[in-house]
Amino acid sequence: MSTATRQMHLAAHFPGVNNTTVWADPRSGSQIDFSSFEHLARTAERGRFDFFFLAEGLRLREHNGRIHDLDVLGRPESLTVLAALAAVTDRLGLAATVNATFNEPYELARRLATLDHLSEGRAAWNVVTSFDAFTGENFRRGGYLDRADRYTRAAEFVATARELWDTWTPDGTPRPFAHRGQHFAIEGEFTVPRSPQGHPVVIQAGDSPDGREFAASTADIVFTRHGTLESGRAFYADVKARLAKYGREPDQLKIMPGVTFVLGDSDAEAQERAAEIRRRQVSPQNALLALEQVWGRDLSAYDPDGPLPDIDPDPGSSLVQGRVRHGDPLAVAARWRALSEEKGLSIRQTVIETTGRQSFIGSPRTVAEQLTEFVAADAADGFILVPHLTPGGLDDFVDRVVPLLQERGVFRSEYGGPTLRSHLGLAEPVWKG
Amino acid sequence: MPATAPLHLAAEIGGPPRYDPGHYTGLARLAEHGALDFVTLGDSFARPGPDALAVLSRVAPATGRIGLVPTVTTTHTEPFHVASAVATLDWVSRGRAGWYVDVSTTGAEARLFGRRPAAPAGELWREAGDSAEVSARLWDSWEDDAEIRDVATGRFVDRDKLHYIDFEGADFSVRGPAIVPRPPQGHPVTVVDGTGGPARETAARHADVVLVRATTPEQAAAARTDLRRRAAAYGRDPDTLRVLVALTVDLGDAETAPEPGLESGPPLAAGGSYYRGGPVDLAELITRWHRGGAADGFHLTPISPGRDLERIVNGTVALLQHRSLFRTFYPGGTLREHLGLARPANRYALEGGRA
Lengths: 433, 355
Prior knowledge:
Mean pLDDT of chain B: 92
Helix content of chain B: 25-40%
Shape of chain B: globular
Largest sheet of chain A: 8 strands, parallel, barrel
Mean pLDDT of chain A: 92
Number of domains of chain B: 1
Number of helices of chain B: 11
CATH topology of the largest domain in chain A: TIM Barrel
Shape of chain A: globular
CATH architecture of chain B: Alpha-Beta Barrel
Order of helices and strands of chain A: EHEEEHEHEHHEEEHEHEEHHEHHEHEHH
CATH class of the largest domain in chain A: Alpha Beta
Distance between the termini of chain B: 31 Å
Oligomer: heterodimer
Radius of gyration of chain B: 20 Å
Number of helices of chain A: 14
Number of strands of chain B: 14
Distance between the termini of chain A: 39 Å
Strand content of chain B: 15-25%
Largest interface: A-B, 60 and 65 residues
Largest sheet of chain B: 8 strands, parallel, barrel
CATH class of chain B: Alpha Beta
Helix content of chain A: 25-40%
Number of domains of chain A: 2
Structural class of chain B: alpha/beta
Structural class of chain A: alpha/beta
């Protein structure tokens, strides 16, 4: 069998609380009404997607000591809204991002097992960790978890959840459990029988060496940011190579980058649209804010249509709270300056040029080809698509790209089974009684 | 209470543990067919069963009017998560959510979490009150018109209408604001069993609906009077409190029973006083107590929901409707509207003088 017919997996990311999501578009709907979630989930199911994905926030982001007001803000609690979506979908997987730092294994394992029952085997959990005192201000646990403890606690958390999911025998008899570890010492009885998938699907998104190792040992899916062909292939090879030492086969872990897309009737029209979307994503205010996020300084006096600042970034800045910082700020600033000087770009133009480019741009045929090629080249097992519009941002993709993928034989035309594990081709975990 | 005060009815749909959503959806639809104010679904870490809030969220899109009130315990759950989940249930049900506050008193429950030992009920109910206070503040932490989508200035929200809640309690502190925008009802409905003990104080201070177990109308009336007095002492308008008599009901097989009435219940009837009789007898009892001013309504826990809820709806409720004592359809869309409770003003908007 040639690699051209390798099956891909597709997931739909509900548009996030960041500037990828364009709210100023007249077609932009509510980020909180249930109808928006229902529309996107039904669209994804119509397209025979593997799953629907929700991110999480536990504190509103701040910038320069004030709540960040330029991006879409406000979202529901993930597991609760997914339980409701289980009522309006039949096959679509339902993935919730839930923080392991600000939850306890017993309660979260119970909520996830409940969702798996209520959806008849469609639940997934994207495990994230957090260690900042900023988010901790909303929780009993409060402050600070040492960075080194993040993954040990998360790993023990997931292992404990799996122990709890295994406590009932497959024929439905509850048995007591006792777990004693570095982070958790708990015992008793779990209140939920083994769920339809055995264990809900586990997703992991860390990119550091620790994160990759954690994914290789524990996860069913890796949600990655490596959305270009070159970095995707490197990441894919690296993570898949780590599986053997845990006794796992390469196809037991699916690698799915989060990607954006823009469609047009022609490639040229799609490029024009993509540029227009980037301009909308990077408003003058957002351009200054992006600059401040790199520089770690108050740059509100600068003209977004003027040149980049001469002063250097403050690498130890706490200007930005509640947002993940990517990369070394000094290196990023140097790259931006070089680009600005080379092409004569303003602040806003530089930000648009460097941060806004969509992953896949073109006619439906072009995008279908690119996606297929990406998977055939071992850069991904599939994609988590991030639309820029709520709730209609996936409509065109499902109506125009999915049929082409199906024609090419690289994506399912019908669901083969009832559970998310069956969509992903993952076996039910062996019961460890 | 005037004799014409509206009657409120609610029913518990929990029973022996079930994990299939169709079971719960069927019961909630049945209760909705009877135009009941709300259904409750009990929950505890101490016995088998699914997460009740998730179950009622699963039920929400399959129902249109009935209020959905899961038990949510506050002893081992983060207050921030409680507020977010209940607010989300209100969003997915378009304004039909409540939460039935409870505490986890046992050492067995404490060992499931391993974070703290079991504590006395008084301490736990004070903490539950703090949790209710945090929820109410978080639900107010977004003003209704905080989202502005102002293209000219690039601002999605007016951050002056988002508020830190800065709650500092004996057991936890919460900074805020909420992640979830203010829910459709402003505040989802808070339900507390205020029969006695430390829970009554928490009920008087924080609850919209208080359940009381009583075996005589006089006992129920006395509890209602006491709760209204205590609520007033907290600066609340007592008319914003709905006191429902909690009865566990066994409707047997007949329309009427030879000796209907209340009896002291077996241990399993922890949800209220134990009523045994036929659906018609139950309608008589409800009519008598309600006309006498003993209660604003009733919360019924069928001993066997699959059997008894159908009898409550098609027998008891149908008779009450026939007598024009109970609504035959829902004039409103939200649980607060069913209960005749106003959508609360936002405390922070009031402070800012913009209400």
